[in-house]
């Protein structure tokens, strides 16, 4: 169970609100930061990464990299967007170049639970739950750098432009 002090929860009611959350996260990322995305098919992982790319200033169309493993998006802070769904082991992600990606870009990994052993301990874990009225997005941090990102996100002005994005207290479940 994540440390509730190092967790933020959001409810997004539209894809645009999920992207707005991603953009807010993206504005806070640097080279070497990793987002581990968890959630069922269609829960909003790629939608959030579209916003992350926008927040980073990364270029290129963001689409699920399921069939090619990873897409590179150049920009002021480049982004590698990877999908571990078809990988058979964490070693496959390392062989594909995870360490090299982290040395030159921020990295978002969909289906992260399949390769969790390959991921750095200091990362943001983002879990998606599908609700009847939208998505519940839980952002957890472990490590000094990811905790600083989470705190900056907590203090970020998501503002009235994002009316379909609600910050909530995480349940103690």
Provide a quick synopsis of the model.
The protein is of the alpha/beta class and 173 residues long. 29% of the residues lie in helices and 27% in strands. The protein has an eight-stranded mixed β-sheet with strand order 3-4-5-2-6-7-1-8, with helices on both faces.
Can you put this structure into words, describing what you see?
The chain is α/β, with parallel strands linked by helices and 173 residues long. The chain has one domain: Rossmann fold (3-Layer(aba) Sandwich). The chain contains five helices and eight strands. The chain has helices spanning 15-26, 45-56, 90-96, 98-104, 144-155, and strands at residues 7-12, 34-38, 70-73, 79-83, 106-110, 123-131, 134-142, 165-168. Helix 1 (15-26) crosses helix 2 (45-56). The protein starts with 6 loop residues before the first strand and ends in a 5-residue tail after the last strand.
Chain-wise SSE layout:
Elements: E1 7-12, H1 15-26, E2 34-38, H2 45-56, E3 70-73, E4 79-83, H3 90-96, H4 98-104, E5 106-110, E6 123-131, E7 134-142, H5 144-155, E8 165-168
Parallel strand pairs: 2-5, 2-6, 4-5
Antiparallel strand pairs: 1-7, 1-8, 3-4, 6-7
Helix pairs in contact: 1-2
């Amino acid at each position: 169970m994540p440390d509730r002090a190092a967790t933020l929860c959001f409810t997004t009611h539209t894809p645009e609100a999920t992207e707005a959350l991603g953009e807010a996260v993206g504005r806070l990322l640097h080279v070497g930061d990793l987002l581990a995305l968890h959630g069922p098919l269609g829960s909003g992982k790629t939608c959030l990464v579209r916003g992350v790319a926008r927040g980073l200033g990364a270029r290129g169309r963001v689409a699920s990299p399921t069939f090619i493993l990873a897409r590179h998006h150049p920009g002021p802070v480049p982004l590698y967007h990877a999908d571990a769904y078809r990988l058979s082991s964490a070693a496959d992600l390392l062989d594909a170049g995870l360490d090299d990606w982290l040395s030159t870009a921020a990295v978002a990994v969909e289906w992260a639970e399949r390769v969790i052993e390959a991921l750095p301990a200091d990362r943001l874990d983002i879990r998606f739950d599908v609700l009847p009225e939208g998505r519940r997005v839980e952002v957890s941090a472990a490590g000094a750098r990811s905790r600083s990102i989470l705190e900056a996100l907590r203090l970020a002005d998501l503002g009235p432009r994002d009316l379909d994005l609600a910050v909530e207290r995480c349940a103690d479940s």
